[in-house]
User: What shape does this take?
Amino acid sequence: MSTPALRLQSLRKVFTTHDGPLPAVDGIDVEIAQGEIVAFLGPNGAGKTTTLDIVLGLTDPTSGVVEVLGKPPRAAVNAGQVSAVLQSGGLLRDLRVDETVRAIAALNGATDRVDDAMRRAGIAGLAHRKVGACSGGEQQRLRFALALLPDPQLLVLDEPTAGMDAAARRDFWETMRTETHHGRTVLFATHYLEEAQAYAPHTILLDRGKVVADGPTDELRNLVGDRRVTATLPDDEVDTALEKLRGVAGVRQVWQEGARVVVTGTSSDDVARLLLTTLRGRDLEVGAPSLESAFFALTQEVEKS
Amino acid sequence: MNLTYLRIDLVRQLRDVANVAFVVGLPVAMYIIFGSTFGAGGESAGNGNVRFYVMTSMAVYGASVATTSVAGMAAIELMQGWGRQLGLTRMRPTGYVATKVVVALTVAGGGVTAVYVAGALTGARADTPWVWVSTFLIAWLGSALFAMYGLAVAQTFKSESAVSVAAAGLVLLAFFGNLFVTLSGTMLEVARFTPMYGYAGLMRYPLTEGTTVGGSDDSLPMLILNYVVWAVVFATVAVWATRRGRNRL
Assistant: This one.
């Protein structure tokens, strides 16, 4: 069996604050296989950035085990096996784009990869521009170029699209997708649920320093399992139809939105059958549950327990 | 230390026009103004002339501005996240410090050299070449004290403008360091305890051998004590402020 790209065991990090000790990471166990694309999903303050800092050797854990490709983080960084796109900040505004890349390349012993990294990150055309004059999206591409310099096996992205507009976000992920085809392991933190859904087959849900859920992204969605079924019904039969729909086992809510009825629940197949046959419904749509609803359901469960 | 990184960082510093103007332009201009005001007749001052005395004073001022701003901005750039970026490379903190020391000394050396060249061209004279060499070296290397000052301010206030204010505040310290006008009486007594006094006095020692223009004498141990005490104070504040900032959200 090959070495996992990342192994965290009973990881804890406690910060000292004015109000006493604050566990930012409170006992995390995670294992990520090589070649996986994994999302760290959680609200602000869930411990995502702190965990990633520990993975990158920027912070030492208070206790617990962290192994990056079987090594301590620092050794993996020195070997160029792990690199990261860090959250905003981290660039010198008065350096030019090409100077920034060359400076970091020199420190990584990767001067021969400068042109390649810039081209792949899509910033070859910005080479002579001052970093301070670049847009947020362009600066993020520059950070991405810096992360590609050591040709890492594990690429860590800490909220890589925070502050980007929708178009820049899509472009960024497009670039990322081509880069991750070559067996790179990617771990990204995000609080955009759609990003986890769209790009990560494996999602780890974090909340208040703990892992709330860990598994295939599709399964996480099914954990809550609700689907949403909508259809248009003949005007005169709406009220009786609503009654019948409420009677189906597994239906959680039924309501009317204009000419359409909306049904949520776990028994979407039964609801659809009923709508299309007895109730003479038209334009039927069945939607998958959003990760958002899964997320709230799961974090609330933790709160109750 | 990585030479490519060093070169890029140096070029970046030299591109900063405002910085170069304050480190090189201002001291040279002040030397020319003060030097010709006070030393036009070639009056002597210890083992040299008044122009030489003014030249060395301005060199000390320029070197201090250089090390304060380089060290202060280094601390700021680390805080603003560049340190995290560097943390993802093979560069160790010692390598970063070494690089910044070389950058600060290069910029400070440039400032001191510019003033000394201006002095040599406009009639600054010393009795022996030794006075030129020794004052140059002390003015240059002694400015390390103000690297610690810049660091202490940056770590305490954590903002770019604080570093700018610290560099601007050197005018006041330089005034008390007996660099701009010759102090006497109570002012001189107070000035002896300020941070630039020991450094400037040590630099000037080969020239004046401790005699101040204001009339009283500075002993070599007192000047060294002043320098060492302030170095300890700045270093302690820098370390304390750095620790305070760590392990906290």
Notes: Strands of chain B lie at 44-45, 48-49. The interface with chain A takes residues 2, 4-5, 8-9, 11-12, 15-16, 77, 80-82, 84-91, 247-249 of chain B (CB under 8 Å).
